[in-house]
Design a protein that fits this description.
Layout (H helix, E strand, L loop, with lengths): L2 H19 L4 H15 L2 H11 L8 H6 L7
Helix pairs in contact: 1-2, 1-3
Organism: Thalassotalea fonticola
Pfam family, one: FdsD
InterPro entries: Formate_DH_dsu (IPR021074)
Length: 74
Amino acid sequence: MSDDRLKYVVDMANQIALNLLHGKEQQQCVIEISHHINRFWAPSMRAQLAEAANHDNYQLDDMVILALREIKND
């Protein structure tokens, strides 16, 4: 996968986290991030996000990292 594509999905996931974080507790934010990504992202995009999480050169938001446990891998 190209670096540009992985950076794109990381940027999108981080933006979702930023938008959902406002005034919420951590666990609620993590649940909402995972629900959003599971509902609206194609399986290929979720796979790219998981791939990006395995590399240190992409800076995933801490909330996205926590949400990865709840994001589908199919």
